[in-house]
User: Fold this.
Amino acid sequence: MMEFIRFKRGQQQVKYIRLEPQFEGNAFLPQYALVPLAFRTQTSGFPLVSVGDFVTEGQMIARAGNSLSAHVHASVPGVVSGIIDAQLPNGHLFRGIHIKTGGSFGILGKQRSSYPWKQSDQAGILHFLDLAGLVNTSGETTSLSEDIRTAVKQGVTTLTVMLYDKDPTCILDSFLARRFIREVAEGISIIAHAMGAAKIIIETGAEKKDRALFDTIGSVIPDCDLAHLTVPQTYPVGNAHTRSAEKNAVVIDASTALSVYESVQHNQPMLTTYLLLTGKTLEHAKVIKVRIGTPIGHLVEECGGFKSKNTHIILNGLLRGTLVDSLDLPAGKGIKSIHAVGNDIDIQKQLEECGHCGQCLRSCPAYIDPIDTVRRIQRNRYTAETLRSIALCSGCACCSAVCPMRIPLSAIIKSAAERGVGHAV
Assistant:
């Protein structure tokens, strides 16, 4: 189905093919899992196991390294065959624990009593969320328990829930909200109880079925001050009302709420995550529940494999996502989607073919000059204006989307920012 993305600035719009995914349920169990000890920069954990150790399903195998990180658990039982370098979506190398699957599953398929969160106080629920290694994926992936603890210390009592997709090409959160709205609502209620929320703001799209999501949440959480905000159908998503709702609030998404519900319901740590697999070079578009550490190449095979050889993988959306070059990259906390796209990508050739049309400049909501910034980054010639532009860039990728030569402008600027360029401004 052809979809259009309309940008706030410049009145431009781009079209892309959106495939309606099927919900596949649980992915096949992997023969091995490479469980990352980190989900972004500066979040690596401390291993609690050694090569040759047998680990059980759900066993804590790494302790959180700092307040930004989360505990790590074995998603499959088996023998630790290595503690090796693993690549995160941003290209940084972090350690991962390689587990060769074997032995019996202690959680999968077993009846387990749910965690009694309604009878627990805030400290008890926060302790559970912490031990379970749950994360918040509404923005940069962070420790959910730490987000809540920080909010409680600051006296924040508002919980804002995004039931829409920040990147309209990565439709996982809206998909999960519509398919599992009662479970998502229960997860929202648990998080609200953990932080002592006095108000819950639900942000949705403007369609009738989106309004129905809010009504269902109201029936599941009847005794709370609920408010409903509709987000505009332009990109980047948001306006003064949504910015106000997300300021001085704990902000979560549907994926986070659903993960909390499932961990509490089954009284288990975070062992799985939901992934959208789509793209014009995939045989079938699917949403799959996968074991953390499953290689994305295995998941591509479950979707029928690639239609063509010249296929590139983009994680977490075509606009805000990251290009990766390895099918061995494991599915981890914070990865929401896998797009398989065609055509070879040659950045230098694309830069040389730039026609100076100015569309990237006209579409940028931060009013920077993306192509000039990228050219200076590529030449390692940083002026004060270049450093300012890198610091101001939000990573929305409007510039990349409207570029007729498909130059990955936003990704190049984002990479420079991650290297620390622009922080001196």
